[in-house]
Amino acid sequence: MEMENIDFLVVYGNSGRQGSRTGNLAYVSNFIPFSGQQILVFPRNGEPVLFVGVENQRIEALRRSWISDVRCEAMTPVPEQACNFLEEVSDPGKRLGISTLSIIPFAWYEQFQNKIPAKEWVDAGEMIWKNRLIQSEEEIAFSAHSAELGDRIWDRALEFVHEGVTELDIRAEMDKVILPEGGTENFNMMGLASMANGGEAPWGYVIPQTKRAMKKGDALLLEISPRVEGYWNQLVRVLTLGPAEKWLVDAYDVVRLARDAALECLAPGQPMVGLVDAMDRAFKEKGYEVWPYGLVHITGLDLTDYMITPKSTGDLEPGMVVTVHPMFNLGRDRQIFWGETYLVKENGYVPLNKCSDELACL
Question: Which spans in the chain are helix H?
C-alpha cells in the first residue's frame, strides 16, 4: 500500500465464484465467507475492520480470521456500515483502493463514491491477487490435501458406479468423501451420455446433476473440484460402463498427448503461454480445432486464480499450482474434457493428483 500510495484498501468478499478476485478477502483476512457479502477496510496505518451482514458471519470471522474488529450492525446494509466508518476516518486527500471493480456490485461502488471523501478511487485488486499466485509452504499443503481428496473421489467413483446408479447418487458419494475432511465447497460437475454413434449430445459437457440413471454403453465424465481450507483442486476423468467406443479411446489418447506436450513447458522461468501453445500444436497435429480458453489455469483460493490464454505474458514461478486442462470439440454439442493439477518447483514440477490417468472401463 505504501508503494502504491494507497491509504485505505476496501476488499469486497462474497461466497460465490465470480472471477479471479473472489479469493482476495480470504487471502488478506483468513476469513472464507460461507454466505452473503462483506467489506474489509484495510488502512495503511491502523488495524483493519471487517463488516458483515449477519451475526453468524461475525462469529465465524472472529473464530477463523486474524481480524479482531468484526462488525455487524442490525438493519444496516454492509456498504452503509463501511461508508459510515470511512466517512469518519478518511478525508478528501486520501487515495482509496478497491478490490476489485470486476466483482463489487455497482450500487455499492456508487455509494462509496457518493458518500466517502477521497482524492481518488482506484482498482487495487491486482496488488493482492499477484501475491496469491505464488503459494507458501502452508498454502501448498492445503492444495495438496485438496488434491488428495480429488483423487479419493475418483477412486470412490470407480468402486461405486454401476448400472442403475443416478447422477445424484454419484454426487452424494462424492460429497461423502469431501465433507468429513473439512471440504467447504464441492464444485463437482458431470457429463453423462451414451457412447453410441459417436456419443450422443451433449456428451462431455459438464452440467448439474439429474436423476438420469447409468446404463451399459454410457460414458461418465467427472469434473472433480473439492475446496479444503479455502484452496481448490481440479481433476477431470472419464469412465465407461462397458467397453469404451473407439472414438472415445482415440479422443482420450489425444488429450493425454496434449497434456504431455504442455508438461514439457511446465518449468520455472518458462512463459505461461507456452503451455497453451504446446497443447494447441498437439491438437492441430491430430486435426482438431480448439477454443484456446480454459486449457490451463492457476488454481488456489479461486478455482481459477488466473486463466492462461494465448494472450498471457507472464512466466511460471515456483509455488504456482497449475491445472492442465486439455479439451477439444468432438462434434456439434459434444466435447471431451480432461485435467489434473501440478505444483511448479525450483527444478520443474510435481503432480498433486496421483490417481491413474487411464480411461476407466467398468
Answer: 24-29, 55-64, 78-89, 106-115, 125-132, 137-160, 167-178, 246-263, 273-285
